[in-house]
Q: What sequence folds into this?
């Protein structure tokens, strides 16, 4: 499934490091554009031998907290863990739209659903060793899945509750056995998963990082700053959350499937924490570091484009910003008010706040470009309507918006926009406030730290009318954008975890979304088409105002080549070559 | 014109001539003291007496060269052993200060820097003027303290000013002043802050100094009793000018200036008959900037006449006294 | 035990076994007033003398309830005021007033004189006519100014525009506003120049004549006390050591301390008499010597003086002294 | 002496206790401060939320939670952050402290030297143009917002004039530990030092000048002059030495406040990962364990500094020594 | 110097100490210059709407990133695209030298000059109100603690100690973070989170210990003052003593503290706003403007420098004025340190 995403905004150096950590995303990326990147893609086809060795030095504003791969939910940590841990399945580690769907990694095969999607059977590869020398076996797999519940992985409920016995494990983690859910046969190295209800996304979830396979004797609690042994090409040998992280080669690693877990080039990967974005950029420009993790600050995009065009990395993400409209509170309990704002908002201005068209594109639908089920359409632009959507956003339609507001009779109401504190959010919130003011509302902005804001807007007790936020999928899927955010089941009143911020509930659309999801088990394309219909149906109800989809822009040092940004794993650290 | 004390045969130590100090205020110059002239001979104790604002402290500090208020103007001459002090360079003045001329101030409580021991501060003065080691200096300090009648001088030297009683402190102050054997000691109200019983001891000490240390003393006070008790000769100041000078005994017995007379009369007598009302002087002493033209005392004087609107010169009034009054020779107003 | 007063008029103020102690850090206690008893008759002036730290000011303030007494009682006109509430005390305040030493500090610099003088009239109702009207207040203020010899224009002015003597007149006027019977004057002239001091002493005397006031007059200056007082009480370290008729006490002292005091004051008419050999400083009131507190400085001290504190007893009618060996035989009478 | 010491300790504990209870209660009264959702992760199931709530004790009564937190903070010292799983707050502060210490100490040395020089010079030349200039400079120093001055310093040294010889040595913002590379440490900190010092130079030179000018009226200064001492000796041994009492006491308090996180704006502008920035981050994230730890840390410093100032007082002022 | 050297008092008859101080102040060139500068700045800020509407023709609060203006006959985008191969980033227009966008635009395309004036209104208003409120509270606390002493004093002093033990900016930030979400509820009154009262109250609260201390000290001195004893002796009730004898004398302390506190409040306000915890968008203050400009410090430094200079000028003027007042009222010791 997914998780919030955010970030990419120019985190200026003031911003709390912890917040930055939370804000980072487990990004699912599609590499696009950039001549440098295009070249790098060609390089990636060549064998790794010639350019291996050296120390890769990356720099990040702050660390990502715990290293426990089953608990960590931070994009940056994910960056480090990708070459350290493996899952049964994996998204292919190459760039572009071909990097879906999942392929086999620790498993020899991608399992076929049996019993109408209730049973999945895999066979483990032979000869794979953890970095402590222990050889991977079926018990490790079973233990790892139990550990998801025992250690309290955040996605235990949403992603793995279809397994038989998972409910008991959630209710009483200490006594979790999952003995009906997972059966193993050590002799044939087979592991069988038994589900109590079909899960159309079970395979992607076997590739999701929280299902990383760890040694069976890993303690069933958050390991914190010590990383348990993994199977990937590197192992983490040093970590201080405020200062650095160091990875060295895993002596037991050998490449078993290049596309699933390729061998790495650098001998050592070092990350330094504690620099703000401005300094990161300066340091990478000066060659002190090889890669800056954070995005290039907005006011220095021009400078980077002018002088370091060849080193700039731009890659798309399944990430967009939107304003969630609370459909249970005035004025946005009124459809016309919601639509009015959708018409009125100037998405071009929003693009400018993110650095221009090279970095951001307007979006007025709920599934972003690049995700399965994406079918470009815009119902709220000049000359379009929900019944007759245009292909893309052109310009705001203030006339129509004002008329809708008049019809809704909501003009003059007081509206508070709750936005994260950080730079670009601030600008977007102000723009949004302007728009609301132009429509005749009495609007104001209330900002708070992103970490706090994200749970704050979810809680119905806080009576948030309109919340500015962003969303990014854990892995590429339409359901993570539609079902997670707009289905009746994700409304949890009085709880900080209620991702349906709009509190939008429409049983008809829910049925359509369920249908689209289940279709995936049989017909991938039909499922995508159905998702696109669900997207348009939802957008006609305008539970939120999608604003911009953005790309990540970072800088590499001159000596670094072979940058590969994949759909699921951002930039692959292990594939960077140092010359 | 200098005042001479006929009885004294010794050499003049300090000769002050026409000393004037003025300060600018609201665009005009206000004289704090005017034409102060006197001579102090060796081993003589001269009392400078007057009410507040009469300029006695200004006179003393001017002699010491300690007046440094911006805009202040000093004219006239101060000759110490023949050396002119007015206009002397700061460095040369410093060498004289503390070594040849020492000064003690009214409040022994605040005369010492609070953060150093008394001994340290006396050592400091000795070492500033003589090439002595700290140990030698301390020896002299202890000896001086002993001479001043300080019990347990070694221990006292190591104590901080606030740990000493008022009397001990004033003794220490005097010890410090005498540490370099100055020939002139200027004592500015040395006993005003002290109790009578302690005052008596300190006055006793001061009057023996000329014998023990060969020092002359310029004693500044507002207390006629103190002057009578201690001094050889007296100079009475009124509003920045000399009113009368003379030998102490003679002056108190037969004051020639109406101010001196009135002042003495207004002190409640301790012996003899108690007058029902004291013969008080009407009005208050004028502040320097509102000093009347002519004789400054004329507005308060019973016998003032038209002539008093000019400044009376200091003229001999018999008995070795001099008084700045047109009627001094004739008028001996004893009420 | 109260002292028989010299005449037969009624006792206005009676103090019985008054104590005032302060707790200091480190379990030290300061006995500022230690078991003091005396009485004041209507129309008389009781002078309270002593050196600094003897507790005379504390005593004065206790009398007016400006400081709470630790124990003992104060009877004003027969009424015990020691433990009256502030509210009940307020009517009595009209009859019992105080004049302070520091004439500037006791006047609020931000208020006009008229305002300051009117304040008591505003808060106290007239016993006959009730609340004071504006006209009554104006009339009373003019009357007061005339009484203390200040121009009527003074009402519009601020305290800082007056000289020290004038300010003290204002203070006296304010104390008189409510026509009190008893005035406690705490060193009212010691901050003034001699020439002005005499004026104020005269004013006190005149007011007493005109208004039939009773004073408790606190001063360290024996001459001043002698001038104004009918009786004198001498204090040393919190206790009264001698009390009696003014000239008796001052000229034929029975207590060695009183004797030492009287001999220590230099007086211009006395000339150089040579001061008495006085030893030692006043001990700190925190660490008072045992037995008779004066014994370490007393030339006549015997063993008993160290051990037993003498009681205040009559040596003559209306002359009491607290000494094991009163000096009755040794007294010297000056003429 | 001992009782004074004990009383002091008692007062300190009361203050610390008061602050901690206040912070704790305020946190629970603040909407959006419940960390459960943040700890559990996005979209965590209600069961996971429950597990977290129980594991962290959020379902226990407040006094119990308070006691647990204090125990974890002071006794077992394994209190972990709510905002960032697994991050222990005590080591985090221990990491941040040297940064702040480096910043504040360096800055204090600068402001001490410069303010004493300026204050003394101004007092010695009272009324002259030198005095007036120094007073004005001090005022300007006090009037500049430190974060703005920091930005301007960054702009000049890192952007506008970075290519000139004057500023080419200036490294980008960030901190280098002294143990790692003393020269880089110095280079990284010298501009922050100066920026932080500016305001204090202004304050302290003014205080010192005023003090010295006031002291010049004192009797003992006149006595010192009457002793025939040189003006320099009078100024240093009698003036400065006496002023040191006031100066040091103020200095101690400011120094402690800065060490306790008061330098946060400077740390923020120069990207120094010190205590102030940590506290600020904790506050913005409503991360109670970290807030509690940093606030306790800073309060301890201030209270400790008060005690040190008292001791210095005793060392510097013999009158105080006898007073107790 | 000796005690005899008193400067003669001014010759004019019957002046209160207040009027005397005012005269001294009027004669002080520095203070008068500072006052003039302050007046000009305040006036300019008050006239902000006039400037924005009739001179610059802009709305200082509306974002205008997608807009353009006509300069010298050419239409110019307010956000200008960068001319690099990747078309990365846009920069706001720099100082134009025309009435519109005189100092250029900020990252949201708003006219900096107009915002500077509007921001000044808020900054000045907040700091002035905070100073007044702080003085009021400090007087309350200081007078209560100083006059009644005993337990009242102990409790209040401990409370102040607790506030002292937290660095002042951290304290302010903490309070802001709590209030910025939900506003403030005081009994039946609710103050919205974006109300300027919130920073005012916070700043005032934070500086209470700093101002209450000299006030308390002054009151304690005054309580012992002989004229208060004299008033008690005359049977003047306590409330009258407080009102007529204590307060007028405390007032000097307050008057001197006033400008200094306002200077401190202005700095605190700008710091809070700089951290986005003070004045809330879209309202501006000099602090929020510096914060806005921070992101543009490399490309358009004027955005941050202009409001910073405004702060420096105002604070400097206030400090000079405070010094002048202190000298005029001559209570150097009472307020030597008010930080």
A:
């Amino acid at each position: 499934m997914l998780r919030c995403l955010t970030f990419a905004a120019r985190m200026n150096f003031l911003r709390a490091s912890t917040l930055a950590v939370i804000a980072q995303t487990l990004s699912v990326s599609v590499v696009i554009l950039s001549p440098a990147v295009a070249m790098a893609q060609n390089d990636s086809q060549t064998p790794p031998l010639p350019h291996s060795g050296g120390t890769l030095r990356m720099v990040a504003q702050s660390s990502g907290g715990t290293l426990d791969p089953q608990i960590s939910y931070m994009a940056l940590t994910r960056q480090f863990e990708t070459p350290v841990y493996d899952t049964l399945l994996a998204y292919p580690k190459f760039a572009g739209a071909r990097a879906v769907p999942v392929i086999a990694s620790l498993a020899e095969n991608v399992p076929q659903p049996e019993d109408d999607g209730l049973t999945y059977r895999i066979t483990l590869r032979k000869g794979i060793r953890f970095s402590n020398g222990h050889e991977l076996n079926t018990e490790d797999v079973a233990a790892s899945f139990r550990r998801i519940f025992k250690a309290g992985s955040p996605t235990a409920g949403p992603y793995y509750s279809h397994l038989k016995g998972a409910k008991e494990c959630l209710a009483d983690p200490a006594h979790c056995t999952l003995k009906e859910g997972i059966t193993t046969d050590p002799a044939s190295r087979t592991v069988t998963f038994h589900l109590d209800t079909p899960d159309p996304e079970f395979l992607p979830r076997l590739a999701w990082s929280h299902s990383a396979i760890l040694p069976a004797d890993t303690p069933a609690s958050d390991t914190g700053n010590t990383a348990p042994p993994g199977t990937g090409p590197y192992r983490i040998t040093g970590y201080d959350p405020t200062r650095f992280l160091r990875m060295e080669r895993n002596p037991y690693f050998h490449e078993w499937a290049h596309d699933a877990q390729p061998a790495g080039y650098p001998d050592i990967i070092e990350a330094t924490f504690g620099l703000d974005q401005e300094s990161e950029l300066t340091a990478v420009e000066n060659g002190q570091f090889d890669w800056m993790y954070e995005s290039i600050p907005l006011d220095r995009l021009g400078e980077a484009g002018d002088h370091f065009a060849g080193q700039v990395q731009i890659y798309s993400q399944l990430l967009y910003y939107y304003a969630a409209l609370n459909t249970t509170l005035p004025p946005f309990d009124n459809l016309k008010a919601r639509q009015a704002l959708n018409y009125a908002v100037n998405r071009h201005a929003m693009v400018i706040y993110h650095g221009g068209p090279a970095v951001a594109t307007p979006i007025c639908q709920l599934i972003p470009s690049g995700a399965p089920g994406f079918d470009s359409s815009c119902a709220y632009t000049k000359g379009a309507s929900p019944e007759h959507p245009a292909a893309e956003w052109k310009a705001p339609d203030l006339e129509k918006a004002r008329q809708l507001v008049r019809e809704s009779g909501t003009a003059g109401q007081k509206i508070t926009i709750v936005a994260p504190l950080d730079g670009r959010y601030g600008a977007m919130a102000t723009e949004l406030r302007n728009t609301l003011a132009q429509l005749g509302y009495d609007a104001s902005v209330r900002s708070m730290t992103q970490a706090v804001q994200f749970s704050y807007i979810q809680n119905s007790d806080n009576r948030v009318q309109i919340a500015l936020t962003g969303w990014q999928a854990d892995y590429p899927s339409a359901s993570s954008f539609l079902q997670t955010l707009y289905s009746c089941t994700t409304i949890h009143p009085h709880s900080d975890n209620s991702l349906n911020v709009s509190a939008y509930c429409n049983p008809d659309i829910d049925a359509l979304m369920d249908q689209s999801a289940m279709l995936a088990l049989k017909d991938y394309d039909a499922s995508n088409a159905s998702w696109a219909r669900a997207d348009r149906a939802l957008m006609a109800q305008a539970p939120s105002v999608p604003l911009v989809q953005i790309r990540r822009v970072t800088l590499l040092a001159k000596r670094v080549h072979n940058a590969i940004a994949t759909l699921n794993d951002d930039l692959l650290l292990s594939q960077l070559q140092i010359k | 014109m200098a005042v001479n004390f006929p009885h004294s045969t010794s050499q003049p130590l300090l000769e002050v001539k026409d000393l004037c100090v003025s300060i600018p205020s609201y665009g005009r110059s206000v004289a704090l003291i005017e034409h102060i002239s006197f001579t102090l001979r060796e081993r003589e104790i001269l009392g400078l007496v007057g009410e507040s604002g009469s300029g006695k402290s200004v006179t003393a500090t001017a002699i010491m060269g300690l007046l440094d208020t911006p805009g202040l103007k000093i004219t006239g001459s101060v000759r110490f052993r023949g050396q002119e002090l007015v206009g002397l360079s700061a460095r040369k003045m410093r060498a004289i200060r503390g070594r040849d001329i020492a000064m003690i101030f009214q409040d022994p409580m605040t005369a010492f820097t609070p953060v150093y021991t008394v001994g340290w501060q006396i050592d400091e003065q000795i070492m500033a003027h003589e090439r002595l080691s700290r140990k030698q200096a301390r020896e002299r300090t202890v000896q001086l303290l002993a001479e001043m009648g300080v019990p347990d001088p070694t221990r006292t030297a190591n104590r901080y000013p606030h740990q000493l009683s008022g009397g001990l402190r004033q003794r220490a102050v005097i010890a410090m002043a005498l540490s370099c054997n100055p020939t002139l000691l200027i004592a500015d109200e040395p006993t005003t802050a002290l109790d009578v019983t302690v005052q008596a001891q300190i006055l006793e000490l001061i009057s023996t100094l000329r014998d023990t240390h060969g020092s002359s003393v310029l004693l500044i006070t507002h207390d006629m009793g103190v002057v009578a008790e201690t001094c050889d000769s007296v100079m009475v100041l009124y509003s920045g000018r000399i009113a009368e000078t003379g030998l102490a005994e003679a002056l108190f017995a037969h004051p020639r200036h109406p101010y001196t007379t009135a002042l003495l009369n207004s002190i409640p007598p301790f012996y003899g008959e108690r007058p029902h009302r004291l013969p008080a002087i009407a009005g208050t002493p004028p502040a320097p900037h509102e000093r009347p033209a002519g004789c400054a005392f004329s507005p308060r004087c019973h016998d003032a006449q038209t002539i008093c609107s000019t400044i009376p010169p200091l003229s001999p009034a018999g008995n070795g006294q001099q008084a700045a009054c047109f009627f001094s020779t004739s008028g001996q107003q004893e009420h | 035990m109260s002292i028989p007063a010299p005449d037969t008029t009624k006792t206005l103020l009676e103090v019985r076994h008054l104590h005032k102690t302060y707790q200091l850090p480190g379990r030290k206690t300061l006995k500022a007033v230690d078991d003091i008893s005396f009485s004041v008759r209507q129309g008389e002036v009781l002078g309270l003398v002593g050196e600094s730290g003897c507790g005379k000011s504390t005593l004065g303030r206790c009398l007016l309830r400006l400081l709470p007494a630790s124990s003992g009682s104060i009877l004003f006109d027969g009424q015990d005021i020691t433990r009256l509430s502030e509210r009940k005390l307020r009517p009595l305040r009209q009859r019992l007033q105080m004049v302070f030493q520091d004439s500037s500090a006791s006047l609020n610099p931000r208020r006009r004189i008229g305002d300051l003088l009117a304040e008591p009239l505003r808060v106290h109702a007239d016993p006959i006519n009730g609340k004071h009207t504006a006209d009554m207040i104006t009339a009373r203020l003019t009357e007061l100014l005339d009484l203390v010899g200040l121009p009527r224009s003074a009402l519009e002015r601020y305290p800082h525009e007056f000289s020290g003597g004038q300010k003290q007149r204002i203070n006296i006027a304010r104390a008189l506003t409510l026509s009190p019977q008893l005035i406690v004057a705490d060193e009212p002239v010691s901050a003034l120049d001699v020439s002005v001091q005499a004026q104020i002493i005269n004013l006190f005397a005149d007011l007493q004549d005109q208004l039939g006031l009773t004073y408790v007059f606190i001063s360290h200056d024996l001459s001043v006390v002698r001038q104004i007082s009918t009786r004198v009480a001498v204090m040393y370290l919190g206790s009264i050591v001698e009390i009696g008729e003014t000239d008796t006490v001052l000229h034929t002292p029975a207590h060695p301390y009183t004797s030492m005091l009287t001999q220590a004051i230099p007086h211009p008419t006395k000339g150089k008499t040579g001061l008495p050999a006085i030893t030692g400083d006043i001990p700190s009131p925190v660490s008072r010597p045992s037995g008779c507190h004066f014994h370490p400085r007393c030339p006549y001290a015997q063993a008993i003086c160290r051990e037993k504190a003498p009681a205040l007893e009559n040596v003559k009618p209306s002359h009491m002294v607290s000494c094991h060996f009163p000096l009755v035989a040794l007294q010297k009478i000056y003429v | 002496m001992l009782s004074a010491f004990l009383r002091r300790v008692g007062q300190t504990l009361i203050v610390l206790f008061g602050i901690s209870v206040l912070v704790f209660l305020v946190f629970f009264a603040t909407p959006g401060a419940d960390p459960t959702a943040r700890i559990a992760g996005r979209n965590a199931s209600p069961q996971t939320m429950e597990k977290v709530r129980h594991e962290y004790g959020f379902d226990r009564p407040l006094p119990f939670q308070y006691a647990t937190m204090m125990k974890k903070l002071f006794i077992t010292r394994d209190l972990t952050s709510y905002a960032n799983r697994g991050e222990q707050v005590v080591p985090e502060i221990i990491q941040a402290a040297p940064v702040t210490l480096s910043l504040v100490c360096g800055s204090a040395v600068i402001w001490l030297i410069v303010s004493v020089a300026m204050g003394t010079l101004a007092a010695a030349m009272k009324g002259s143009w030198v005095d007036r200039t120094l007073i004005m400079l001090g005022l300007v120093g006090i009037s500049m917002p430190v974060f703005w001055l920091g930005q301007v310093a960054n702009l000049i040294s890192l952007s506008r004039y970075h290519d000139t010889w004057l500023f080419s040595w200036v490294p980008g913002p960030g901190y280098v530990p002294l143990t790692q590379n003393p020269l880089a440490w110095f280079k990284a900190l010298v501009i922050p030092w100066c920026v932080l010092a500016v305001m204090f130079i202004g304050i302290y030179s003014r205080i010192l000048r005023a003090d010295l000018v006031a002291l010049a009226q004192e009797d003992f200064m006149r006595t010192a002059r009457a002793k025939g001492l040189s003006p320099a000796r009078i100024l240093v041994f009698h003036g400065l030495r006496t002023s040191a009492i006031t100066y040091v006491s103020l200095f101690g308090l400011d120094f402690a406040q800065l060490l306790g996180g008061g330098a946060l704006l400077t740390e923020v502008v120069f990207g120094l990962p010190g205590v102030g920035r940590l506290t600020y981050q904790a506050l913005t994230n409503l991360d109670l364990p970290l807030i509690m730890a940093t606030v306790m840390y800073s309060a301890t410093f201030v209270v400790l500094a008060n005690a040190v100032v008292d001791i210095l007082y005793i060392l510097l002022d013999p009158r105080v020594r006898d007073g107790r | 110097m000796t005690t005899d050297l008193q400067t003669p008092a001014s010759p004019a008859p019957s002046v209160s100490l207040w009027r005397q101080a005012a005269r001294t102040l009027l004669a002080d060139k520095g203070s008068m210059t500072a006052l003039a500068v302050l007046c000009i700045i305040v006036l300019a800020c008050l006239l902000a709407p006039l400037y924005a509407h009739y001179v610059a023709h802009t709305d200082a609060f509306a974002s205008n990133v997608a807009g353009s203006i006509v300069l010298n006959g050419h239409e110019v985008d307010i956000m200008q695209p960068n001319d690099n191969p990747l078309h990365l980033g846009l920069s706001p227009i720099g100082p134009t030298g025309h009435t519109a966008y005189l100092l250029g635009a900020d990252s949201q395309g708003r006219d900096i000059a107009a915002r500077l004036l509007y921001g000044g209104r808020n900054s000045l208003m907040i700091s002035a109100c905070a100073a007044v409120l702080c003085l009021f509270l400090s007087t309350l606390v200081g007078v209560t603690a100083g006059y009644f002493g005993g337990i009242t004093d102990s409790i209040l002093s401990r409370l102040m100690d607790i506030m002292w033990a937290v660095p002042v900016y951290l304290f302010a930030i903490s309070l802001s973070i709590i209030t910025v979400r939900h506003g403030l509820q005081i009994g039946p009154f609710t103050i919205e989170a974006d109300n300027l009262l919130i920073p005012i109250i916070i700043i005032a609260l934070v500086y209470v210990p700093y101002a209450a201390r000299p006030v308390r000290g002054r009151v304690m001195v005054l309580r012992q003052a002989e004229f208060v004893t004299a008033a008690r002796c005359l049977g003047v009730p306590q409330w009258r003593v407080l009102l007529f004898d204590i307060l007028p004398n405390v007032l000097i302390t307050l008057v001197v503290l006033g400008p200094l506190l306002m200077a401190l409040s202005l700095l605190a306000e700008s710091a809070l706003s700089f951290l986005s915890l003070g004045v809330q968008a879209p309202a501006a203050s000099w602090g929020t403007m510096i914060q806005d400009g921070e992101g543009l410090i490399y490309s358009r430094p004027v955005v941050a420098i202009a409001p910073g200079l405004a702060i420096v000028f105002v604070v400097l003027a206030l400090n000079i004025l405070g010094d002048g007042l202190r000298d005029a009222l001559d209570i150097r010791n009472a307020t030597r340190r008010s930080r």
Summary: Residues 159 and 209 of chain E are 9 Å apart (CA to CA). The interface with chain B takes residues 1-8, 10-11 of chain E (CB under 8 Å).
